[in-house]
């Protein structure tokens, strides 16, 4: 039987996809390995055929070794559309391949390509703002074993991103791609990471007007989170990664040595109490530690009022775990079903924020497509719809630019605006 869109999303994360040489990807978003390396696949969009969620976005692994054995093969063309066929089952799925935004080809006023400042991963903009995570500077390195940030920052993306670079890229993404959410991350920076992001948050809120998420290694002084909340940050996420302490220590040696697993949980809980329900998330990687530990972590995170975002382990090229096989579909389907159930049990309003589709994880609301259609399911779905409607004016207010700097946002003159620069060059 053919898979539904969320099942297909999970299977693609586990098995990848093959792209024959004669299939043209003209105009598609390029395959770019930035940040931790998870976006190293091809972005595709799966229609769901349901009103609950019309589309699911997936960053499908295509360059990793395991993807070369995938039964999924892409066919079609930019003009005629694309089809994804499972050559074992003969099931075929129409898919859409999103186009690369025109601003990827432009430069900031400091002459840095915008695609080296931020990338779209689904419908949100991801920007690694800090200097390279310092776990990579130790000898021997203390980097997380699944991560490739140390190889990407300064290579595939700019190492030094000025506030103006970030603002101009955010503005282009908002104006031209309709992006409403920017996610800033930066790995471990000692006690300076959170403070470092403050001018970026302030400038994005004032000059562009977007929802802003921040993901950094936790810091012991929790008043720093209060400052971020005061600045208007909309989302805070904590990379818990693993629940099992042995796996955490083994696979995240820097986090274990410098911070300890408990600090991640404490910081997440603190912020979940300070922010609205569903504004905080705990990030997990599924497919390495025992499955029951991942399920326990999901329950813990949701019980705190945060939502779990679970990434299917991807053995990215160049990572220490490059040769470790990805997990199997059945286990990952069980994990994602559990995510939805944990959110439902805790009345977390997943999917309430507008236009945020993350392609590198299975979004908790994607997993609604996995849930049994019980009375509890329909009640929760009705609650989520109501939450979306009630929250819409609030999100509209939070995505307004507080100061009018850029043309198109309200005038006031913006000599460094990317559009004004391009237009004057054309003239
Ligand atoms: S904290 Fe770990 S996952 Fe995050 S950037 Fe550093 S090495 Fe990578």
* Proportion of residues in β-strands: 15-25%
Strand arrangement, major sheet: 6-7-8-9-10-11-12
Low-pLDDT segments: 408-427
Ions and ligands:
iron/sulfur cluster
Which percent bin holds the helix content?
Answer: 25-40%
Q: How many strands in all?
A: 12
How would you sum up the major sheet? 7 strands, mixed
Please report the distance between the alpha carbons of the first and last residues.
57 Å
Number of helices: 12
Please provide a brief summary of the model.
The chain is of the alpha/beta class and 427 residues long. Helices cover 34% and strands 15% of the residues.
What is the fold's blueprint, element by element?
Layout: H1 5-15, E1 42-47, E2 55-60, E3 72-77, E4 81-86, E5 92-95, E6 119-121, E7 124-128, H2 149-152, H3 163-177, E8 181-185, H4 193-208, E9 211-215, H5 223-231, E10 235-241, H6 245-251, H7 253-258, H8 261-274, E11 280-286, H9 291-303, E12 307-312, H10 329-345, H11 375-398, H12 418-426
Helix pairs in contact: 3-4, 4-5, 9-10
Structure description:
The protein has 427 residues and is of the alpha/beta class. It has helices at 5-15, 149-152, 163-177, 193-208, 223-231, 245-251, 253-258, 261-274, 291-303, 329-345, 375-398, 418-426, and strands spanning 42-47, 55-60, 72-77, 81-86, 92-95, 119-121, 124-128, 181-185, 211-215, 235-241, 280-286, 307-312. The strands form three sheets. A seven-stranded mixed beta sheet has the order 6-7-8-9-10-11-12. It has a three-stranded antiparallel beta sheet with strand order 3-4-5, with no helix packed on it. It is globular. It starts with a helix and ends with a helix. The chain binds iron/sulfur cluster. Iron/sulfur cluster is lined by residues 36, 133, 135, 143-144, 147, 149, 187-188, 217. The site of iron/sulfur cluster (SF4) has 10 residues, from loops.
């Amino acid at each position: 039987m053919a898979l539904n869109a969320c099942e297909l999303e999970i299977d693609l994360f586990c098995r990848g996809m093959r792209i024959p040489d004669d299939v043209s990807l003209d105009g598609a978003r390029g395959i770019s390995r930035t940040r931790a390396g998870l976006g190293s696949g091809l972005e595709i969009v799966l229609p769901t055929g349901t009103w609950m969620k019309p589309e699911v976005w997936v960053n499908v692994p295509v360059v990793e070794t395991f993807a070369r054995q995938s039964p999924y093969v892409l066919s079609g063309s930019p003009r005629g559309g694309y089809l994804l066929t499972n050559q074992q089952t003969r099931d075929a799925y129409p898919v859409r391949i999103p186009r690369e935004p025109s601003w990827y080809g432009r430069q900031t006023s400091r002459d840095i390509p915008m695609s080296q400042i931020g990338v779209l991963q689904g419908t949100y903009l991801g920007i690694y703002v800090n200097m390279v995570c310092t776990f990579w500077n130790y000898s021997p390195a203390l980097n997380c074993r699944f991560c490739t940030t140390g190889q990407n920052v300064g290579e595939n993306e700019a190492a030094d991103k000025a506030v103006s670079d970030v603002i101009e890229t955010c503005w282009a993404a908002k104006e031209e791609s309709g992006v409403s959410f920017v996610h800033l991350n930066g790995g471990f920076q000692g006690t300076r990471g959170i403070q470092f992001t403050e001018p970026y948050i302030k400038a994005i809120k004032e000059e562009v007007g977007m929802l802003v998420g921040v993901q950094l290694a936790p810091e012991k002084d929790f008043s720093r989170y209060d400052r971020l909340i005061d600045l208007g940050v909309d989302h805070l996420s904590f990379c818990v990664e693993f629940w099992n302490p042995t796996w955490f220590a083994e696979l995240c040696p820097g986090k274990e040595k410098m911070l300890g697993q408990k600090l991640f949980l404490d910081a997440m809980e603190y912020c979940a109490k300070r922010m609205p329900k569903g504004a905080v998330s705990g990030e997990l990687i599924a497919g390495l530690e025992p499955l029951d530990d991942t399920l326990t972590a999901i329950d813990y995170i949701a019980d705190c009022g945060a939502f779990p975002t679970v990434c299917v382990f991807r053995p990215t090229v160049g990572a220490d775990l490059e040769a470790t096989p990805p997990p199997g579909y059945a286990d990952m389907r069980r994990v994602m079903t559990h995510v939805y159930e944990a959110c439902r049990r805790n009345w977390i309003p997943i999917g309430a924020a507008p236009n945020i589709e993350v392609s590198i994880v299975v979004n908790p609301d994607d997993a609604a497509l996995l849930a049994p259609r019980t009375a509890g399911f329909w009640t929760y779905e009705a609650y989520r719809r109501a939450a979306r409607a009630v929250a819409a004016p609030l999100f509209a207010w939070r995505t307004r630019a507080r100061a009018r700097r850029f043309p198109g946002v309200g005038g006031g003159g913006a000599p460094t605006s990317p559009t004004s620069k391009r237009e004057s060059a054309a003239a």
